[in-house]
Design goal:
Jelly Rolls; four-stranded antiparallel beta sheet; alpha+beta; DNA-binding; 2 domains; homodimer; Arc Repressor Mutant, subunit A
DNA sequence: CGAGGGTTTGAAGTGCATCAAATAGTGTGG
DNA sequence: CCACACTATTTGATGCACTTCAAACCCTCG
């Protein structure tokens, strides 16, 4: 099933994903042997909340949105993930059911892996178990911070905070970054409406002196941005790992 | 150091905490031997965010608030915990540093246990590791849901949702419950100001026919409450495990 | 009884959402 | 290369939700 070249590529991808890093080549091969690469067009739903979770996924390319829908049709975006990130893996502790839905928001290439193998190997391989703990704990800190942001930061501060996390950590001045996906999606990722996003971004621009044209953002000096955004947060820049 | 009777009591408490349930008596004793019971008066800080995490805690009695403070002095309440709940344990995957502060909000009795033992034993005892996974994954679902609530529910709906979670699951009508701690704390737990809480509770009363006097809440029929609160949420009553 | 915190209420302001409409940007077929 | 359709984004006007500040009311505990 799995071609040699593809398998090599998959093993390469494993190196970059925290869950698989540092595993023995044997364990890695167990996963690689059951891996299936699939192309998902933009907009396609990968799985639905409450569905039985047979697979978890590594993103090779593209962007994936995790979300949940309420009865009245509105959706809450849990997270938006890109290359070398993994999703659906928590289902193994969740009665084998996905706790959110997943959808490709750009044309994407995913590696699917059976959750059964993950469950099996976690029990056998202490290093894998340790990695899983690390992944979960990291995710947890992220979620905690997200709650803090939603509770305490204004929409403009949240956007500023997001921009700061896109900046290269070593560079302090004359930074140019690109918004990673469209503004509508970004708005929902930050828990606001597109209109609010647009207006809040203008406010942020006026208060911090950044320049925006389309998806391009120029930041002359990080400090104006941190002064504005980080005062409504318990961490100071640079936030280690959000 | 540890008296026999106290040790028995601690082992009894272990049975009720998911992290320790089902462990061999040997493993349990390793923990019990290093356990120290401490009384914490209302208002006392147990540990501060960013501090080195030598201990984690089981609550034997009382209420403990986990929170984080921003630079401008406002605080975000992460969680409020009661008997048989455990806290501070995630620090072992967090560079040995507490990721939030903890404070007793009622006179409380805690069992402190060294994080070093937990770290050691998780590597040795697969059952303990499994329990830890279960605890983390449960916490994760809770946090996800909290984000959803903050994003999609109104303040009144959030209060209704909280009340529903206090109701005994089997009873559908003529329920009387007590708010577990004071309304100021409850407000911050639900991400709102005391004044907003008060007003929103009035709105909830008017819309769902519940009666409130002080901390006492009478609910004639669950269904009015679920109709009002659960429409802004992806789960339906009863929410399994928040 | 009086002090002090918890709780409610009132008035006014802010932030974000909503609805509606204009504008910019992108890809299509001609 | 243009006209068109369609989507993304911005802007304007308005409303609702929540906060803020101030003051009153309660309750309880010394």
């Amino acid at each position: 099933m799995v071609l040699w070249a593809e398998k090599e590529e998959i093993l390469g991808l494993f190196k970059e994903t925290p869950l698989f890093s540092g595993l023995t080549i044997e364990t890695q091969k167990i996963f690689a042997n059951t891996a299936v690469t699939c192309s998902i067009p933009k907009g396609q739903v990968i799985y639905m909340e409450e569905n039985h979770a047979d697979f978890f996924y590594i993103i090779k390319k593209g962007w994936v949105k995790l979300f949940r829908e309420t009865f009245d049709g509105t959706e809450a975006v849990i997270d938006i993930l890109s290359s070398s990130h993994i999703f659906g893996e928590f289902s193994i502790f969740d009665n084998g059911i996905y706790s959110s839905s997943a959808q490709a928001v750009e044309d994407s290439i995913l590696i699917s892996l059976p959750t059964s193998i993950l469950k099996e190997q976690i029990e056998k391989d202490p290093k894998l178990a340790f990695n899983m703990f690390a992944v979960m704990s990291r995710y947890q800190r992220q979620q905690d911070k997200k709650i803090e942001h939603l509770t305490l930061q204004t929409t403009s501060q949240r956007i500023g905070c997001f921009l700061l996390r896109l900046c290269p950590q070593n560079q302090k001045t004359d930074i140019v970054i690109q918004l990673p996906y469209d503004k509508i999606l970004l708005a929902s990722r930050l828990g606001m409406k597109p209109e609010s996003f647009s207006r809040s971004l203008n406010i942020l621009r006026d208060k911090t002196g950044i320049r925006i044209s389309g998806a391009r953002v120029e930041i002359d000096s990080i400090s104006q941005l941190t002064d504005f955004s980080c005062k409504g947060c318990s961490s100071s820049y640079p936030c280690e790992d959000i």
